[in-house]
């Protein structure tokens, strides 16, 4: 819910519902919401209460009716203050006051804000609610316009004179229930329909309903969206120090999101909970100003993901090539080991999420869980180091033990987020596999290692092979007789049928390298540069191809309202819904699985293609044969180019090669492989002989 002071809140109207409404995949969603208590539930419950059980088990609650709207709770206009105003109010309190700091904060957070929201109640439904409301502290003579509260929109307040007790049930968070794949189709549609990236962020009213890891069938999730169909729970505002919490509970054999009090709530007090929402957009984070008015206010009701120390282990140990290594291992094995099942079980993943998936995908998931466990152990130290460096800029007195504890909490939050992202990824991929194969279990491994004649075919003698494309690129720059002689030599060096194809193929490629270097070069045909590339191919040990499951796949539409798009679209588009059809590219599933930790990417296959250039997919040999008379300086293959290439290979092996250089990359490569991938697969440095030759071979073209 957008509560930024600069963004006028929209008092949206929703259709009131009294149960969850499933949008798609009803049978699957019902399964995800169904409670399956462990056989030893009572023993685990006792162990959890005594601190002996680490895995979260279902919290079973008896059914209780929600608080009555209009009787026990009210929907009304609510106001809040930002951290700046909170500090102004503190500063304006009389110096002679005998209040301690805690009492001063409590005065602002409890008495002042509660009184304020009683005063503004009459604005509800009036149509003329002011965006700011002046506060008039009589404690110091300060400019009055500094002291203002900002409108948050409609919120929910306690209307029961005796208030609510601690651990009291308030209301369940109801709405439309989406399987993850359908929700992210809608999110992709929203991004595609937004015309201006500078528009204010749309309001959001969605929460993940996550199955506890300790459920007998394991962890999974669905999305509950209260934008259009909801109850008053969707009006409850965020607070960094809330009086309620949202949690998943098991009621009558079904999981629901319930809002429960965490402390007593007084009459007239606004009901709040912590959204725990995350965004990847720094702009959205900074625009989402929190108005909870609490001493511990974080300043934004969103948390920013992908920042600093949170991503350090991921970037260092789980790069693009590392993830391909895990995928290749899973595809080669195409089976699930007992150890895999144990690792998945410890992470809380069971039949609810994994049943019906092909073995290679379950094995890949186990590899990802192992990385998550590794990251969880390493991350607290990185977070602690980062936090201490930041705080020492402003504070001299730091409680190290407190900081260690906070780092552990943050690391656990990152770990939970990773598991959430894996569940979303598997749901999206399962859906596409179901559309393509009917039964997802029929989906074959997406990667296939090349060896033997298959390897010779893509590099030497097959249609569209590396050597065939080299000859085609050279043809416009050579006399026909000279080209025919070269073709005959290439044919005589065909490694097919040899006892050791890998060895003979390398010998043939190195012969071709030397043959190219013996040919005269010009600005338009850089045989010497092509020779360098052939040299790199010769020293690459592992090549693989991607199995194409299906051509672009377009599926039934999702419907998006102007409210889904953001405040500026309501007036522009009226109340009509927009139709959006998601198209899944032929390598969508592979891209999503490689980028499993970023489920918000609309086209992960294109992202993967861009990231693969150079480090995983070597340049096209046509890069060095041009039509222009003399290319621009930055597109000339020179010693500077070679130095850059070697630096990237040695120092930044998992980064893509830049597109503003001479290299050209295929938009749809037939195969992949690089010496940098070899280093990850074999846990060894780059081949010294390969690097030495590139660094010491003499230049044969002096035109640069």
TrEMBL record:
Residues covered by the SET domain: 141-276
Any Pfam family: SET
Chain ranges passing through the membrane: none
PROSITE patterns, A to Z: SET
Matches recorded under CDD domains: SET_SETD2-like
SMART domains in the cross-refs: SET
Name listed for the protein in its UniProt record: SET domain-containing protein
Species this chain originates from: Ananas comosus var. bracteatus
Highest classification ranks of the organism: Eukaryota, Viridiplantae, Streptophyta, Embryophyta, Tracheophyta
């Amino acid at each position: 819910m957008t509560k930024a002071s600069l963004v006028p809140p929209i008092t949206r109207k929703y259709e009131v519902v009294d149960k969850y409404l499933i949008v798609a995949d009803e049978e699957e969603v019902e399964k995800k919401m169904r409670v399956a208590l462990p056989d030893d539930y009572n023993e685990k419950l006792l162990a959890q209460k005594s601190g002996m059980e680490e895995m979260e088990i279902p919290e079973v609650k008896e059914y209780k009716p929600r608080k009555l709207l209009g009787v026990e709770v009210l929907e009304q206009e609510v106001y809040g203050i930002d951290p700046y105003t909170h500090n102004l109010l503190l500063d304006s309190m009389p110096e002679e006051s005998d209040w301690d700091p805690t009492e001063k904060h409590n005065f602002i957070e409890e008495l002042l804000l509660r009184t304020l929201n009683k005063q503004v109640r009459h604005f509800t439904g009036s149509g003329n609610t002011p965006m700011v409301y002046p506060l008039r502290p009589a404690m110091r003579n300060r400019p009055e316009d500094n002291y203002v509260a900002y409108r948050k929109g409609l919120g929910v307040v306690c209307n029961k004179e005796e208030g609510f007790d601690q651990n009291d049930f308030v209301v369940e968070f109801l709405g439309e229930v989406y399987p993850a794949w359908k929700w992210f189709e809608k999110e992709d549609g929203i991004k595609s329909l937004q015309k201006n990236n500078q528009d204010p962020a749309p309001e959001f009213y969605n929460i993940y309903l996550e199955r506890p890891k300790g459920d007998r069938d394991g962890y999974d999730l669905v999305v509950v969206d209260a934008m259009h169909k909801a109850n008053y729970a969707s009006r409850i505002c965020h607070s960094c120090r809330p009086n309620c919490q949202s949690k998943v509970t098991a009621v009558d054999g079904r999981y629901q999101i319930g809002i429960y009090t965490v402390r007593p709530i007084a009459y007239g007090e606004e009901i709040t909970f912590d959204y725990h929402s995350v965004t990847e957009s720094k702009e959205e984070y900074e625009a989402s100003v929190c108005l909870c008015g609490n001493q511990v206010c974080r300043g934004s009701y969103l948390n920013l993901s992908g920042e600093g120390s949170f991503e350090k282990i991921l970037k260092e140990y789980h790069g693009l090539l590392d993830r391909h290594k895990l995928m290749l291992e899973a595809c080669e094995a195409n089976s699930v080991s007992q150890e895999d099942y144990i690792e998945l079980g410890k992470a809380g993943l069971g039949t609810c999420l994994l049943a019906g998936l092909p073995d290679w995908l379950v094995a890949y998931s186990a590899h990802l869980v192992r990385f998550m466990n590794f990251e969880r152990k390493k991350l607290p130290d990185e977070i602690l180091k980062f936090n201490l460096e930041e705080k020492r800029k402003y504070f001299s007195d730091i409680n190290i033990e407190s900081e260690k504890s906070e780092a552990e909490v943050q690391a656990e939050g990152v770990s939970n987020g990773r598991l959430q992202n894996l569940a979303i990824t598997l749901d999206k991929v399962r859906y596409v596999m179901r559309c393509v194969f009917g039964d997802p279990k029929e989906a074959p491994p997406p990667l296939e290692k090349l060896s033997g004649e298959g390897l010779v075919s893509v590099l030497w003698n097959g249609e569209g092979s590396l050597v065939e494309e080299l000859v085609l690129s050279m043809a416009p720059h050579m006399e026909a007789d000279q080209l025919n002689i070269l073709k005959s030599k290439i044919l005589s060096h065909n490694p097919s049928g040899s006892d050791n194809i890998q060895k003979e193929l390398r010998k043939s490629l190195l012969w071709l390298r030397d043959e190219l270097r013996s040919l005269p070069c010009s600005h338009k045909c850089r045989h010497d540069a092509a020779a360098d590339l052939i040299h790199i191919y010769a020293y690459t040990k592992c090549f693989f191809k991607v199995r194409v499951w299906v051509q672009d796949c377009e599926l039934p539409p999702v419907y998006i309202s102007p409210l889904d798009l953001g405040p500026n679209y309501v007036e522009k588009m009226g109340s009509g819904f927009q139709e959006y059809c998601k198209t899944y590219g032929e390598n969508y599933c592979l891209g999503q699985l490689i980028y499993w930790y970023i489920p918000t990417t609309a086209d992960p296959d294109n992202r993967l293609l861009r990231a693969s250039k150079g480090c995983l997919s070597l340049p096209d040999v046509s890069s060095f044969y041009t039509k222009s008379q003399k290319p621009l300086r930055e597109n000339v293959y020179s010693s500077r180019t070679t130095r850059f290439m070697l630096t990237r290979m040695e120092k930044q092996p998992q980064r893509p090669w830049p597109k503003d250089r001479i290299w050209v990359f295929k938009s749809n490569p037939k195969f992949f492989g690089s010496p940098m991938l070899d280093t990850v697969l074999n846990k060894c440095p780059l081949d010294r002989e390969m690097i030495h030759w590139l660094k010491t071979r003499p230049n044969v073209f002096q035109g640069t």
